[in-house]
Amino acid sequence: MNRAWKRKAVVCGVTAVAVVLTACGSDDAGSTGDEESADELEIWVFSSSAPPVIEDGFTAAFPQYDVEIVEVPIADVTQRLVVALQGGDDLPDVVQVPLRESGGLFATGQFLDLSEELGPMEDDFADGILVGGNGEINSFTMGPGNMGLWVNQEALAEHGLAIPDNPTWDDVVAVARELQTASGGKQYLFVQPPGTNGANMFNAFFNSRGGTWWDEDGELAVDEDLATQTLEFMVGLDQEGLVYHGVWTDATYWDAIRNQEIVGWTMNFGVGSTSLQENVPEQSGQWQLVTWPTWAESDEQRTGVFGGSLYAGLDGADNPQGARDFIMWWLTPEGLQAQADTLGLVSYRRAAEEIDLDIEDPYFGGQNVRHDLASVPYPAFHFFHWPETEAAITAAVDQAYAGDLTPAEAVEQIVAELSAL
Amino acid sequence: MSATARRSARKYPASAPYLFIAPFFVLFVPFGAGSVLLALGISFLDWPLGQPPEFAGFDKFATVLDDPLFGKAMGNTLYMLVGFLLALLPLCLFVAVLLKQLRRRTANLVQVVIFAPITMSLIAVALVFDLLYNERVGFVNNVLDLVGVGPVPFLTDADLAPWSIIALRIWRVLGYYAVILYAGLQSIPDEYYEAAQLDGAGAWQRFRHVTFPLLKPVTLFVLVASSIAAWELFAEVQVLTDGGPARSTLTAVMYIFGASFEQFDLGKGAAASVLLAAAIIVSTAVASRLLRSDDRA
Predict the structure, then answer these.
(1) Could you tell me how many helices (H) and strands (E) chain B has, helices first?
(2) Rounded to whole angstroms, how far apart are CA atoms B33 and A15?
(3) What is the DSSP letter of A63?
(4) Which of B50, B155, B243 sits opposite A316 (nearest CB)?
(5) Which of B48, B130, B242 is the closest to A195 by Cβ?
(6) Does A239 touch chain B (CB under 8 A)?
(7) Chain B positions in Cβ-Cβ contact with residue A78 (cut-off 8 Å)
(8) C-beta of residue A103 within 8 angstroms of C-beta of residue A384
(9) Contact A65/A320 with Cβ under 8 angstroms?
């Protein structure tokens, strides 16, 4: 190679390196752009009621953030999040996650640790409200799924029946039997939905007795006798014909409420109060909330968990400070009010000091159902391996109801499946 | 080379045919072949959520094959596939033969009617069937009630639920495949039937010795296309039973979805996808061979 060609080669090489460096530099330029767009905050939500309160409340409190709210259907949110995390691109700064899916997600270690912010406030929340993985606190549960017994007292009164004060489950079952006799087996005080909703219903009953499948470290921690007794109780109700089989997502369910076939069922605030008022407004004044009955007179009253949601920040996203500000905003007076307005129940114990939660609800004859539901202690519960756990419970509970397994065998089957994980 | 061919060769460049088929490959290479290769690649990776992937060899395949749920899902899928095909093929053939007996105008009208279900949204169809199957207010149970039967727990009984899914699928695709078979029937020359009739063949013999053998290529297409769709059963099950009761309708694709997007194990999901693809290829090869070997016999 002569000198001229060598010179050309060197020039070409230098030019190539310069082009590559410029290209890399464009990323730096991107980061300059990032600095410019550091105030952008992308939030994925599935609750349709959330965007207006975020737009009005949060953006007013933090005008430095250019908030983009992306509404994602609840069924798609985890799938989209998985794709975004695996792609490592287009991550939202904050995502709303169903509580039941939080255990698996937080165990991946891809979420912001809010221990510094939420740790000092631990006593202001019930045991199971702060959630996280790997020893971190990643978020707090909003609209916790405290269960209650919703009763059409007017329909019961037509038969001269009523749920006694501070009832045990035996008291409620006694009323259900009388109702069965009085109505010729056409009215029900209990509902058992099929599939995963049924499994979660069983889980709420189990949980209200202090039962859990996993401990806080993700180790299997099932009290099998307690689980068996709980399932025996529920299968027993079914065998006695005291249970309506259906689910609130079916249109027919609300017809059954409308025609007083269903006169009571165990449920959280979202479906128990909000959906009831939306779907059957004509029954205003007929319903009451009975706080979760105890299993024996001497027992401490405790509710069960049936869902909830939370906001979590993504570790690898562009605006971690914005994510922290957003999550913590929900605990300011404006944020607490937004929680109360959109979700009903507020999990922060000191909320009543900040906002007016003394809300009498005319639909329930003036009863303060939010206060009454929240007044029952909320249990610690850990949603580890929840898709597998829920699937195992669903299959076994289905078989127990079908009579293919005894409750003891069903619980044994669940534990065997969970042990293999 | 003939004069016409020479004229054509002058008019179009040699690359013309390739340009005509290029649009297909422009889409197929990244989205078809690319996705398949990507899934194959991911199946050899351990790829925890949000972290860099690591090569895992055949570990994910071993995990899937060791998982009794995968066996259950594949077993359920195969069970529903066999039930579906055993019911679908004779029904399609029956409807196609019936169509051939009709006058052309009537046949055209009937084709439009029976073809309609395949054009409907699968999710909408599943929701309608959910109402039809309802134990308390469902149309089917109301009809059964008139004759003193029921209520039948179509979707909540582990033995019945798979068949309720099969019935939905048959209702949806019966017209589509029957129309394809009907087109095949029309391509069989009438002279064959006339000759068979002159030889004294009855209706069954004409069907067995004329219709069925000459319809084999079309039947093979129907068999392969419908069985591939049956292996990929997902949406209607997700809506109607969510894999229950007692996992009696858990399908292979539901297992893959669960592994990927509920357990966040993309490697496991991809490995299960590769195994499902292998099952589809094997079953297609078996179906082709059965019909072809019969031909030679």
Answers:
(1) 16, 2
(2) 37
(3) T
(4) B50
(5) B242
(6) no
(7) 261-262
(8) yes
(9) no
The CATH number of whichever domain residue B70 belongs to comes to 1.10.3720.10
Count CA atoms closer than 13 A to A15's CA, side-chain side: 6
DSSP state of A165: S
Percent of chain B past pLDDT 90, that is, above it, reads 75
**CB neighbourhood size of A337 (10 A):** 18
Which helix (H) or strand (E) segment holds residue A69: the answer is strand A66-71
CA–CA distance, B143 with B140 (Å, rounded to integer)? 5
Distances (CA, A) of B4 to A223, A360, B100, B159, B182: 86, 90, 40, 66, 37
Range of the domain at B92: 39-296
Alpha-carbon Rg for chain A, nearest whole angstrom, is 26
User: First vs last Cα of chain B: how many Å apart?
Assistant: 41
| A23 has pLDDT over 50 | no
Residue B284, token pair as written in the block? 């297609």
Please give the distance of CA A58 from its chain centroid, rounded to a whole number. 22
Q: Do B244 and A394 touch (CB under 8 A)?
A: yes
Domain count, chain B: 1
Is the Cβ–Cβ distance between A338 and A57 less than 8 Å?
Answer: yes
Position A38 pLDDT exceeds 60: no
Cβ B77 vs Cβ B252: under 8 Å: yes
A158 has pLDDT over 60: yes
d(CA B36, CA A400): 41
**CATH topology for A39-144+307-354?**
D-Maltodextrin-Binding Protein; domain 2 (3.40.190)
Task: Identify all chain B residues contacting A391, using CB atoms and an 8 Å cutoff.
Answer: 243, 247, 258
Cis before residue B162, ω within 30 degrees of 0? Answer: no
Query: pLDDT tens digits, residue range B194-222?
Result: 999 999 999 889 988 999 899 998 999 99
Other C-beta atoms within 10 Å of A202: how many?
A: 26
Tell me what the mean pLDDT of segment B239-251 comes to.
93
**pLDDT score for A307:** 85
Q: Please indicate, yes or no, if residue B288 is contained in any of the structural domains.
A: yes
What's the CA gap between B32 and B26, in Å, rounded? 10
Determine whether the interchain pair A79/B261 forms a contact, defined as Cβ–Cβ distance below 8 Å. yes
Summarised one tens digit per residue, pLDDT across range A223-256 is: 999 999 999 999 999 999 999 998 998 878 999 9
Q: A19 pLDDT exceeds 70?
A: no
More confident residue, B13 or A43: A43
Q: Position A366: which residue type?
A: G
Pairwise CB contact (< 8 Å): B158 & A402: yes
R_g over Cα of chain B: 24
DSSP string, A268-328: -HIIIIIIHHHH-GGGTTTEEEEEPPBSSTTSPP---B---EEEEEBTTSS-HHHHHHHHH
Does a structural domain hold residue B250? Answer: yes
Residue A379 has pLDDT above 90, yes or no: no
What amino acid occupies position A1? M
Residue from B142, B247, B248 to probe the interface with A (highest A Cβ count within 10 Å)? B247
Q: Round to whole Å and give the CA distance between A164 and A156.
A: 12
Cβ contacts of A337 within 8 Å, gap of 6 or more: A57, A355
Residue ranges covered by each domain of chain A: 39-144+307-354, 148-305+386-419
The answer to whether position B205 is within a domain reads yes
Residue of B nearest to A197 (CA): B242
Largest distance between two CA atoms of chain A: 110
Give the CATH number of domain A148-305+386-419; options: 3.40.630.30, 3.40.50.300, 2.60.40.1880, 3.40.190.10. Answer: 3.40.190.10
Of A17, A138, A113, A183, nearest in space to A383 by CA: A138
Residues of B with CB under 8 A from a CB of A: 47-51, 130-131, 134-137, 155-158, 241-247, 258, 260-264, 266
